[in-house]
Specification:
Oligomer: single chain
Shape: globular
Number of helices: 2
CATH topology: At1g16640 B3 domain
Number of domains: 1
Structural class: mainly beta
CATH superfamily: DNA-binding pseudobarrel domain
Helix content: 10-25%
Strand order of the largest sheet: 1-8-9-4-5
Strand content: 35-45%
Number of strands: 9
CATH class: Mainly Beta
Order of helices and strands: EHEEEEEEHEE
Radius of gyration: 13 Å
Distance between the termini: 26 Å
Length: 108
């Protein structure tokens, strides 16, 4: 018997696409408590690994001042959004693949 997939859905807005970040406020309980840092890189906490399928895997933290996932690798989220043709209302699935590992994919 297959094991259950642990994950949650978020819906992105036009502003998320414009500013290249992913909202995680509604699903923040999915992530380890120590993954939340400040807005600046210097205030980063313990990183998580996020796979933006099919762009790549990135280490990052979560900006708790705005509850957004903002991967600091240049153009990662922008490329992801272009690949999935993201727009206002696009739904993303965050799958927890390990204690600090997540896969993000678009829901068709």
């Amino acid at each position: 018997m297959a094991s259950a997939v642990e994950g949650r859905v978020v819906e992105i807005r036009a502003g998320n696409v414009t500013h290249n970040h992913i909202p995680i406020g509604p699903i923040r309980d999915l992530f380890p408590a120590d993954a939340f840092g400040g807005g600046a890189k210097a205030a980063a906490d313990n990183p998580i690994r996020v796979e933006l399928h099919p762009v790549g895997v990135f280490e990052t933290d979560i900006a708790s001042d705005k509850w957004i996932l903002r991967i600091r690798a240049k153009d990662a989220i922008e490329t992801f959004y272009k690949n999935i043709k993201a727009k206002d209302g696009t739904r993303l699935f965050f799958e927890k693949t390990g204690p600090r590992d997540f896969r993000v994919s678009v829901i068709a």
